[in-house]
Amino acid sequence: MREISALRMIDKKNAFEDKVLSNKLELSPQSIDTLQMNITLKCNQACLHCHVDSSPKRTEQMNKETIDKCLEILKNHPQIKNLDITGGAPELNPNFDYLVVEAKKIGKHVLVRHNLTVTIDGDPVTKESKMYLPDFYASHGIEVISSLPYYQEYFTDKQRGKGVFQKSIQSMKLLNASGYGDKSGELILDLVYNPVGAFLPASQATLEKDYKEELWNKFGLKFNNLYTITNLPIHRFREQLERLGAYDEYMEKLINAFNPAAALGIMCRSLLSISYDGKIFDCDFNQMLDMQIFVDKPVTVFDFDYNKLINRNIIFGTHCFGCTAGSGSSCSGALSE
Amino acid sequence: MNYYESKDLGRFAEVGKFKPELMKKFFDYYSEATGTDGALTKREKALIALAISHFKQCPYCIDAYTTASLEAGSNPDQMTEAIHVAAAMAAGMNLVHAVQMLNVFEKTGA
Questions:
Q1: A5 interfacial to chain B (CB closer than 8 Å)
Q2: In this structure, are residues B46 and B52 in contact, taking their beta carbons and an 8 Å threshold?
Q3: Is residue B17 in some structural domain?
């Protein structure tokens, strides 16, 4: 039987589910051990690959009522061990510090997706300084996860804007000075690589070795782990692909690189994503595509039911090929090497 | 339509429509030689292939190995250096044959 061509699959609504079925995989939720809260769409940067379409112009912020509801969920569910705070630049939410402090009080492992430059730039609208962040993170034992597309200026600035590489280096020096990246592993600083274009990430282990050598030799910088993430073809990145006439080719690449081993480890099987307005999604990408979880009705933090959510059907789409291509991709990097 | 169309790179396997057993042997050898980490890493092999692609001026190969080098974690500086190695080799191969010219000078008394 002739296989459906990859390009025709792009247009097929259930293309991802068909691929999962044909590989005899079963991708239902296994746990909910991470709550990922997207607390603002505002950012001091406007990166080319951003699936959130973040920029200094965005105004969406999670309010305190929704933050408190999320803290209540975390407190009432000890099996949700991790709080993953993202955005935009999450530090630009006025209640960011409060969320971090309260989450630590209830014993959660807190990760912040920190873009490094917000420390140097401050709030692009209010001009509030954010230079306190390295010490704040250190004093609360926060795991910091930061994007650095490459260990060289050319690729980093190409994707994230002029001057970002130098500011990132400056910010990493401040984090190292606060104790981050040490071999002791007490204060963890992870870096995230994502391709500066329409290609798949290199081997995570190989890149981690390169990053550690280059950043140490050239700048005296240390970090703990490198994670590689595949760019998902939605929003700003999809627009870039379409401008370049590269969307179909990129989708074909993702589909052809489908890896069943990576598929088994996709993050939606153990994570829930919360939008700034309290809606619940299978992941940050589904959130950006407005694919809200539906169990009897669209689910929000205000009607959180753990048992219903652990037994839900995850909503898939063609963008999911991004998480299952090659070594796979997730918020904590490659899924198989 | 041009003689070279980038979408044709994706049709390489169709050459196996005739004598498929020979094409299978090629692809098995090719994958093993170029696509695995061995004494050389995949990245080193991709950079070698990129250099050869330019030396032989094969547009299909340049396309494929530019992407392969990037997907092996390489960067424009490394990739450009590899091409300069190929260019320097091409120049050197020309120039070293001039020793033959010198031999003829000697032989003819020129």
A1: no
A2: no
A3: no
